[in-house]
Amino acid sequence: MALVVMKFGGSSVADADKMKLVASRVIAKKNAGNKVVVVVSAPGDMTDKLLEMADKITLSPLAREMDVLLATGEMISISLLAMAIDAMGEKVVSLSGYQAGILADINYTKARVKKVNPNKINSFLSENNIVIVAGFQALNSKCDITTLGRGGSDLTAVVLAVGLKAGSCEIYSDVDGVYTTDPRLIKDAKKLEYISYDEMLEMAGSGAQVLQSRSVEVAKKFGLEIHTRSTFSKNCGTIITSEERIRRKKMEELLVSGITFDKNQAKFTIIDLPDTPGIAAKIFSSLAKVAINVDMIIQSAAVNKKSNISFTVSREETKKTQIELDKIVSEFKDSQVACDEHVAKISVVGIGVKSNVGVAGKMFEIFHKKEINIKMISTSEIKISCIVDEMDMVKAVEELHKEFGLSKKK
Amino acid sequence: MALVVMKFGGSSVADADKMKLVASRVIAKKNAGNKVVVVVSAPGDMTDKLLEMADKITLSPLAREMDVLLATGEMISISLLAMAIDAMGEKVVSLSGYQAGILADINYTKARVKKVNPNKINSFLSENNIVIVAGFQALNSKCDITTLGRGGSDLTAVVLAVGLKAGSCEIYSDVDGVYTTDPRLIKDAKKLEYISYDEMLEMAGSGAQVLQSRSVEVAKKFGLEIHTRSTFSKNCGTIITSEERIRRKKMEELLVSGITFDKNQAKFTIIDLPDTPGIAAKIFSSLAKVAINVDMIIQSAAVNKKSNISFTVSREETKKTQIELDKIVSEFKDSQVACDEHVAKISVVGIGVKSNVGVAGKMFEIFHKKEINIKMISTSEIKISCIVDEMDMVKAVEELHKEFGLSKKK
Asked: What is the dihedral of CA A271, A272, A278, A280, to 10 degrees?
């Protein structure tokens, strides 16, 4: 009998009717001849409500106590879902993360899973129960409740699927898979049948919030296929799997899987920096100290012992960054800081990027043809990102989506 | 260093401001040189909200899952209170009922505490922590979460005080102690300085909801004094202790500690029942089968082989009781059922009742003088209860309160 891990996100258990729908999907899966372990998130906006409650008490809450507080949301979900399944006549039992044998390290609010002890779940499964496990939470070596960070329920599902040697891991949410680009912006965006772990990671980093990145990393490490799909439809979603399996499954290889974009960007350039060792380190360690997260960084080659450094930050960090840079730059004669708040990042993601040298060239060609000015370029194994003027963003995404053959019509 | 257990009810932790007030009271207690263990209930109407959520899923929820659901309320309280105490600069740690070593039997939703393992709490106390424990919840031998029934947080406080050999147990709520009668009805009701366990039990049974009855029983068994007082005032409340200690402390003995009343009563009388063995058993076991809780029962002496039985039930059970009785009585020739929905129960409670034969006589004399008709009488060790017309209730309570010397003015 195959073992399936099904994970349902907060929007799938937001009210009683949705909870009952989830219960019927779970029971259908069992009736199809599977052992079923279900992982659930906190209902709807419960986690935000709990955070608000804490905010009213203190703005610097104890991390240990924050975990106790946040873990309650998933406890509400597991008990209600178990009641719903029982009311439909199936044997069911709910387990907290700690009862389920999910053991984590000592970091509160962002604990890392160290081990899964599957005995208790296996014992309940062998008694013909559907087992419901609270996502997002674990037990540490002090027997404290810890949580796994935002999106941690995805990780719970993945580590359970690995630990229980499940045949499949299905992640249900209110979106029906991973798209070639955001369908809210581009109408003929297409649902992908497959995507590789690395592509998925690049897509998530570029703002496509389908799956928590750490859970994708763990799935990759253990070769676990994830099927991400919609709670509210019977259609297949997108399978996240290894490059090899994708290559084997596809006759014709897609160069590019998706186009991502992010408007929440501001670009800084420091002009005429002295070209001496340690300058970059000084700038970026100063920014790190005040918790400014820097994204793309480009340093130009030195001319006349002077060089320029450009980088991007989140737009809400603009002011803070400006203040910090003014301090640093005041130490260097002739250096100046320029800021451009009206930029967007556009990325082409695909396992074809590394094997096919033409992808970057094609991207730049498309931009050139449409008179889109590229302000910065950065590349990784399977991604090419460009910073452009935010006015050009939609046009750029549309053109790339069409020209790389991602549209439905094709 | 003395150990104090402080318990705060739901209305004391209903919002952030109240939570902070509780935090400051707890810290003051510690600064006065005590080790402090705090027990908290779920905030405000949280438990009712959770029950509503379950109601929307199913009307017959699994008891095990109900416990998982209900236990979340107290988890929210302990974490928020711990944050508040930490924000005020004191070392603090929160523990669920199961982490705190409160072990219970296998009955879900109304588990009985079997044992308290104080090691974890003691270890945190020895590291100078204020320890906050979630009330109402425990761990059973299957490592499941269970709850102790409504009002179970009182019981948590009492069993912890006993298990930790605490010097005192303080139960805080929004009322400032036990009164001679309900101060909302009788303006010059007086707060009692002391009350015995047995009196407290009779008061609670008569509708004075200050403390959960089981917690009073356990306190009595182990000779633990309970100080019930207000969260929102520094005044002393009422000490619940043994008769012996009260007698030792008081020069002049009070005959009566309080007058309780309950309007939520309906009286049934079955007239002309055949006087044969087993009739009463038949009637009351039939009522028990349909979960009708019978309060006072009186059977008249038989005359001409016929006798009458009267009893009271909660007023909301009137219809159900009528239907059930009609069925039973149809089997007996000549028997009839009469119902009076407009009655109230008035009780005089006091350890003086058993030692002083005059209390009952005085009560009846007062009723007679005020022309209050007594419809039923029932007595226990320390309580005399009468059923009267509900129209006479207020007058009866006023007169008894005055005549037994309970008013403030005296």
From this structure: 10
Is domain A2-174 annotated with CATH 3.40.1160.10?
yes
Cβ contacts of A204-210, under 8 Å, gap ≥ 24: A206/A260, A206/A261, A206/A262, A206/A345, A206/A347, A206/A349, A206/A383, A206/A385, A207/A260, A207/A261, A207/A262, A208/A178, A208/A179, A208/A182, A208/A258, A208/A260, A210/A173, A210/A175, A210/A177, A210/A178, A210/A238
Q: Is-contact A58 B83, C-beta < 8 A?
A: yes
A84: chain B residues, CB-CB within 8 Å = 57-58
Q: Is the pLDDT of residue A410 over 50?
A: no
Q: Is the ipTM of this complex over 0.90?
A: no
pLDDT band at B410 (very low <50, low <70, confident <90, very high): very low
Q: Could you give the count of Cα atoms lying within 13 Å of B239 in the half-sphere of its Cβ?
A: 13
User: Which amino acid makes up residue B356?
Assistant: N
For residues B20 and B13, what is the distance between their CA atoms, to the nearest angstrom? 9
Residue A10: both structure tokens together: 């907060």
Kind and range of the H or E element at B380?
strand B374-380
Tell me if A217 sits within 8 A of A113, measured CB to CB. no
Please, which residues bridge with residue B271 across strands? B336
Are A226 and A219 contacting, i.e. CB atoms less than 8 angstroms apart? yes
Size of interface A-B (CB pairs under 8 A): 114
Res. B274: pLDDT tops 70: yes
Percent above pLDDT 70 for chain A: 97
List the single residue in B53, B56, B84 with the smallest CB-CB distance to A58.
B84
For residue B113, report the phi and psi dihedrals to the nearest 5 degrees.
Answer: -70, 130
Terminal Cα-to-Cα distance of chain A (whole angstroms) = 41
Chain B: residues touching A (Cβ < 8 Å) = 15-16, 19-20, 50, 53-54, 56-58, 60-62, 64-66, 68-69, 71-72, 75-76, 78-80, 82-84, 86-87, 92-94, 96, 99, 143, 145
- Please report, for residues A128, B318, B343, B403, the alpha-carbon distance to residue B314 in angstroms, rounded to integers and kept in the order given: 43, 7, 11, 29
Q: Binning pLDDT at 50, 70 and 90, where does residue B221 land?
A: very high
Residue type, A74: E
Write out pLDDT tens, residues A314-340. Answer: 999 999 999 999 998 888 888 899 999
CA dihedral A18, A22, A25, A30 (to 10 degrees): -160
For B2-250, CATH gives 3.40.1160.10
Residue B22 has phi, psi (to 5 degrees) of: -60, -45
**pLDDT tens track for B100-130:** 999 999 999 999 999 999 999 999 999 999 9
- Whether CATH 3.30.200.100 fits A259-403: no
Q: Both ends of chain B: CA-CA distance in Å?
A: 40
Q: Sort out which chain B residues have CB atoms less than 8 A from A66's CB and list them.
A: 79, 83
C-alpha distances in angstroms, A280 versus A305, A309, A331, A341, B198? 14, 8, 14, 22, 78
Which chain A residues have a beta carbon less than 8 Å from that of B64? 82, 93-94
Domain residue spans in chain A?
2-174, 259-403
Query: Percent of chain A scored above 90 by pLDDT?
Result: 73
On the question of pLDDT at B251 being above 60, the answer is: no
Query: For B57, which of A19, A66, A96 is closest by C-beta distance?
Result: A19
Tell me the chain B residues in contact with residue A58 when contact means C-beta distances shorter than 8 Å: 83-84, 86-87
d(CA A51, CA A42): 13
A81's enclosing H/E stretch is helix A63-87
Within 8 A of A133 by CB-CB distance, chain B residues are: none
Are residues A66 and A108 in contact, defined by beta-carbon separation less than 8 angstroms? yes
Using one digit for the tens of pLDDT, what is the confidence trace for A52-62?
999 999 999 99
